[in-house]
Amino acid sequence: MRPIEGMSLLVTGGGTGIGAGTARYFVERGAKVTICGRRQDRIDAVAAALGPACLAVRADVASEEDRQRLLEAAVAHGGGLDALVNNAGNMLRGPITALSQAELLDVFNVNVVAAMLLSGLAVPHLAQRRGAIVYFGSVHTRRAYPGASPYAATKGALETVTKVVAAELGPQQIRVNCIVPGAVPTDLNIRAGLFTEEEHDKRMQAIAPYHALQRVGTPREIAEAIDYCVRAEWFTGQSIVIDGGLSLGISPF
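-> structure tokens emitted (253 positions)
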């Protein structure tokens, strides 16, 4: 396992939830982390709390111009790049009979296309450090939630992308893996307008018994799995399911 101290990471979607928790985890262990997001106030708050080792860059990963600017900022801040954590994403839910082409293309553009293109830009820098790329799947690829086919489809795509890109970049000693979380408090559904904060909190409480461990996860616990993906030198092309047993299909009734 490589040491964290001195590493340079770029974490997209770093203003809240898993992204913010990942930034904190690595900064506290001596890494330099660049985070991005579309909401300046959120990423600025995270960076202010973590100090000068965390750089906040306002950027939309779906923008080609923003991706280039973001990557350049991360390389300058960290003196290179050891890991790209593709955490940014959008949620889209709805019955298959009511989905529009524009909505589907938008969620695929943010969740899949943007992550792939940013990864491609990062390759020359990651190759210099024998670095790592991390994608995010979801328990939606392990359990079928009616109405969630758009989001589940993007996450299934990323799990497949992980394998192919790992095979492609292996000769350059770049490791590529995917984190598959269970229920973890984030503002993804809130941003998508699906729930209020109060409704989201109640939803987290309601889903807890469906996990074998009887609770939802935390951003820090997901960050620990990211840590392994980033630092383990003979680990690539895999999806790590870290879901407290949610994908086991346990029913509390």
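The mean pLDDT is 95.
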